[in-house]
Design goal:
This protein is of the alpha+beta class. It is built from ten helices and twelve strands. It has a domain of about 230 residues: Beta-lactamase, CATH 3.40.710. Helix 1 packs antiparallel against helix 9, helix 2 packs across helix 6 and helix 2 packs antiparallel against helix 8.
C-alpha cells in the first residue's frame, strides 16, 4: 500500500557526522520548529517528541491536536504505544531473567504444565492464539524465549491473518527473522500459565511504577479518558482510541511522551537490569535477511543482497551506522505512527509518538535533524513510504 507523504526533498539535514562527539544536539525551539514543518508537509494532526542525551531526558514537547474536537495534544496525553510495547515487555522479561525466573535458551515446554497444543479452552483462544492448531507439529518444543523475542518463531505475524486462520510454522524456529506478534503473545502465555505471573501487574510493578510512568498501562484505565488521543488515517479519517480490555504483550500499551521519555532514558542507562541483561537486549542476535520488515514471510534475499548492518535484538532491531551501533523500535496501526531510535555510544535517543499515521513520512528527517545521520534502516522499516526530506 502506497502512502501519501508530502513533498520529497533530496537534501540531508545539516548536522550529519561520522563521529557522535561532533554532533551537536539542536536546542528545543529548533527541534519544535522542525516538527511543525514536518506536520505541515505531511498534514499530520498530532506529533509528540522526546530527546535523550547521555541517558538523560533533555527535551519533551507535543504539537497539534489530540482529537477531532480540536483539543490540544499535550505531553501528558495518553497515546497508543502499538508495537513499542514489545520493547518494554522485553525489558521486563530481562528483569525476570536477572531474578532467575526465566532462562532465554530454555525451551518453553519446560515451563508449561502441559504440552502447548493441549491448551484449547475458549478463554485461551480469546486472550492468546489458538495453540491447538499446532497439534502434530512438534517444532513448538524448540521454541525458547530468545527465539520468541527475536521474531524467529516461524509464525506469521498473527495466526488469524493466515488464509485458513490457523497458526502454523513457516520455517524452523530460530533460523531466520520474520516479525510475529503471536511470538510475543506466546511468551506472555508462558509467563502467565507456566510461571503463574500476571504480565500486566509485572509490567506495572517492574517498569511503570519504578520509572514513574504514571499514565502508562497495558490495559485501559478510566483516568486516561480526560486527556486521550484519538487518531487519523492516511486519508485523514478520524479514528476513536481503542480502549483495550486485555493485556497483550505484542501491542496493548497506552502511554504518553513524558512516560516514554523516562523509559527511553532508563533503558539506555540500563536501570533495573544487570549489565549482562542490558547488553543482551541490544546485542546483534540474528541476521535479518529480508528486503523489508513487511510483509512478514517474504523470501530471504540472496546472500550478496543482504544487509550486514541489520540484526535482531530482543524486542528491537539493531543496526550499525556512522555513529556506531544503534537500535530502533517502531509502532504502527492504521491511525498510529511511532518510532524510537537510540545510539548506544552516546546514549542518545529520539522518541516520536503520533496519533496520525501520516507523520511516519517525516520520521527519518526528524530523527536526523536531532541525532545526525544514524544509519537507521528506514527503507527496511517503511518500504512503501515516500519520505519527506525536511
Amino acid at each position: 500500500m502506497k502512502r501519501f507523504c508530502g513533498v520529497v526533498l533530496a537534501a540531508l539535514v545539516a548536522g550529519c557526522a561520522t563521529n557522535d562527539s561532533k554532533v551537536a544536539l539542536p536546542e528545543g525551539p529548533v527541534i519544535d520548529a522542525h516538527v511543525r514543518r514536518a506536520m505541515a508537509a505531511t498534514r499530520a494532526k498530532g506529533l509528540a517528541v522526546a530527546v535523550v542525551d547521555a541517558g538523560q531526558v533533555v527535551h519533551v514537547s507535543s504539537h497539534g491536536l489530540r482529537n477531532g474536537s480540536g483539543d490540544p495534544l499535550t505531553t501528558s496525553t495518553v497515546m497508543y504505544g502499538a508495537s513499542i510495547t514489545k520493547a518494554v515487555f522485553s525489558y521486563m522479561v530481562m528483569q525476570l531473567v536477572d531474578d532467575g525466573l526465566l532462562d532465554l535458551d530454555t525451551p518453553i515446554e519446560r515451563y508449561l504444565p502441559r504440552p502447548l497444543p493441549h491448551y484449547a479452552e475458549p478463554e485461551v483462544e480469546e486472550l492468546y492464539a489458538r495453540w491447538s492448531d499446532l497439534h502434530g507439529d512438534e517444532r513448538w518444543r524448540r521454541l525458547t524465549p530468545r527465539i520468541l523475542l527475536t521474531n524467529s518463531s516461524g509464525f506469521a505475524n498473527f495466526g488469524f491473518l493466515e488464509p485458513d486462520g490457523r497458526l502454523k510454522f513457516h520455517f524452523e524456529p530460530g533460523t531466520r527473522y520474520a516479525y510475529s506478534g503471536d511470538g510475543y503473545i506466546l511468551l506472555q502465555f508462558v509467563l502467565e500459565r507456566g510461571l503463574g505471573l500476571d504480565v500486566g501487574r509485572e509490567m506495572q510493578a517492574r517498569v511503570f511504577d519504578p520509572l514513574e510512568m504514571r499514565r502508562t498501562s497495558l490495559i485501559w484505565r478510566d483516568d486516561f479518558a480526560s486527556d486521550l488521543a484519538d487518531g487519523w488515517t492516511l486519508e485523514g479519517r478520524p479514528v476513536a482510541h481503542d480502549q483495550r480490555s486485555a493485556v497483550r504483550a505484542a501491542g496493548s500499551m497506552d502511554t504518553t511522551i513524558e512516560d516514554m521519555a523516562r523509559f527511553a532514558a532508563a533503558y539506555v542507562r540500563g536501570d533495573r537490569l544487570s549489565p549482562t541483561s542490558r547488553g543482551e537486549l541490544t546485542r546483534a542476535q540474528l541476521p535479518i535477511t529480508s528486503r523489508s520488515q513487511f510483509p512478514t514471510l517474504q523470501p530471504e534475499l540472496p546472500g550478496t543482497e543482504r544487509r550486514s548492518d541489520l540484526q535482531a535484538g530482543l524486542g528491537v532491531v539493531v543496526f550499525k551506522g556512522p555513529q556506531g551501533p544503534g537500535f530502533v523500535r517502531g509502532g504502527h496501526n492504521d491511525s498510529t505512527g511511532n518510532t524510537w531510535v537510540c545510539l548506544e555510544r552516546s546514549r542518545r535517543c529520539v522518541v516520536l509518538l503520533s496519533n496520525d499515521v501520516r507523520a511516519e513520512a517525516a520520521f527519518p528527517a526528524l530523527v536526523r535533524s536531532v541525532l545526525g545521520e544514524t544509519g537507521t534502516p528506514w527503507s527496511w522499516i517503511y518500504p512503501d513510504v515516500t519520505f519527506w526530506g525536511g
